[in-house]
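Quick entry between incubations.
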Amino acid sequence: MKTLPNVELKGDSLGFWLVVGGLGLVVLGGLGAAWMMEHHGHVITGMNNQIVWGLPHVFAVFLIVAASGALNVASIGSVFGRTVYKPLAPLSALLAVALLIGGLAVLVLDLGRPERLIVAMTHYNFKSIFAWNIFLYVGFLAVVAVYLWMMMERRMNRLSTPVGVFAFVWRLVLTTGTGSIFGFLVAREAYDAAIMAPLFIAMSFSFGLAIFILVLMAHYGASNRPLGDAVMGRLRRLLGIFVAAVLYFVAVQHVTNLYAAEHGGVEAFILRDGGVYTSLFWIGQVLLGGVVPLVLLFSSATAGRSATMLAAALVIVGGFAQIFIIIIGGQAYPLVLFPGMEVSSSFGDGIAASYTPSLPEVMLGLGGIALAGLIVVLGPLVLRFLPISLSDERVDPHTKSASGA
Amino acid sequence: MLLAALLLMVGVGGSFAHDDEKHEHTALGEQCVEDEDFMRRNHMALLKHQRDETVHDGLRTKKYSLRGCLNCHAPAHPSDGSQPASIESGEHFCAGCHVYVAVKLDCFECHAELGE
Amino acid sequence: MKNRCPETNSHRDDLARRKFLAGVVGGGAVMLAPGVTLHAVARPLDAPASGGIRWGMLVEAGKCDSNCTGCVDACNTEHGLTGNDRPATDAQWIRKVDVHDPKSGKDTSLPMMCQHCAEPPCVDVCPTGASFKRADGIVLVDKHSCIGCRYCMMACPYKARSFIHEPLHDQKPWAPRGKGTVESCTFCVHRVDAGGTPACVEACDKKQKGALTFGDLNDPGSDISKKIEQLQTRHIRADLGLDPGVRYSGI
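Done. Structure below.
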């Protein structure tokens, strides 16, 4: 018994179409960058034989990790039975799909041979976590599509819980798989840690919710629909908890590594000597992405909407910094072939590699974000993802009967 | 995908009267390792099969090997003293058909386009 | 369709072709390439790589001269690895590594290349199976399946692999390589299959250093096996348990 009707966006304002047009241009820019990279080769990017994964991978991994986290809001409704979150579920699922498609687009377009995607989808080496991830990512899209159907068609609402549970488990496996891309790399000092998987899960919760909050506020602000504190207060506190969880896992990761003399080198690199990586870690990841949002979200002095928006934005910035450090910092630190020795060669042995992002990489990454944005902006124009009102009277469970929807 | 497109082309253009004014090349030998019709329809399947055997198993039989084809069809030093044909110029043996049917060749991104 | 191969070939070309084919099959004393000598009978063309053999290399770092780059130059020439003066993105299949011990002041020089591990991490992580280990132990990239994701480059502990960052021209016929795929030392598989030895080993012999030995690790009678029995040798990063095919002595 749905008491909150969902209504499509009207799409009759100039501002709406300007936003769509702007996003479309950025997507075109991303496609153009991808064409340049495919045509001229990766020599036009900042990536090289020492830093093989660059800014596109930072964007792609961020989007993919956030995608699985964005589904959380829907899961809290279906799996954990919190009826307040149920009206938010369709948008949450749409955002999850949008972010994943954006991330995958960047990842695929950065391949050395993107035209061989067919080969990748027909030849599998199942010892590779990448191969499993192809199934997990594409399967996620299918599962979320079915989940959306269960949510949005009245007759299927009774199945939204079992499907929701399935989707929840799937996204946990997916995020574990994404973290394991790095966790399984025994060769590199910065990876090779089982904690990568739970760390990524915590990151997905945090980044996904931060993006969800911003998208929700943007949609409801722009279409003048009411968005009450009953919803926003809960989302704020939840984000705060997730940010704290990420800080916990990061602390455990680094403290454990510091304890082992073997990992002293890479820890010194990230925490003290790494130049840009050290600054990004302390200022970007820990301060702006962790401590400041915690203060903003939990302190009663900063209880307003703008504080929430700022906190969510900072979490996203800190998240980018974190993934940048993981992916690029992890590659910049040299492979240790002769422990304790000073090593040099014509191939960059023994020294920290340097990396300068290039314009095509930035455009490709932004193109992926814009693609996700387009889906999230145009989706509600076509289907009923957004409740007409999320004001306190409509949402608070004490004033409406909880039911299957 | 390439295979499907090519099969379609071969089916449609199997009888196209393509004069060899484009490629008066100087291939060696009296004839190809298989006859023309067979080669037109199946050369891609032969090359594909051979490449897997060569790369994965180390089988280097010459009959259907790419280097074997090129040694005759696109020699680096043609016996009549003409310039060796390049893919880019469209003069290359393979380009002769592939440009006509607009099926882009991927082979010579990696493989040397001339024989020995 | 007219016959496209008129009988205009010269007798000379015909002979040259037949001699080339016969030479490789017969395993006789034919110059396959300048300086290649046949150490063993060539495997017949239609015989697959054998699981009974395990190709390996021994590097005696004590014999390696830090000023010498013979192995690197030979590899570059053999495979057409022309640098574009862009050391960050140019391919490097073998490189000289200079190791300095800050405690004792001792300096060692050694070549580093793909170690052709028995448990290769690059093979484990490749999503399409393009990175694979042949039956005789040589680890290769099947560039027909490589999608250029570079995960193998992330996974390799030895930084053995290179990605091709720009369009290539004039590749050597025996070493196909192209933009957008990953590559690494192949133990000169085209030479080895014909009964020869890798270009780097040959160059080192030519320069009278003799630091590199190549052979069948499974054959107790081969030069390499005998040397490994006598010398103190080890793997680099043996802690990873990869069982590389390359052993080092003198480090």
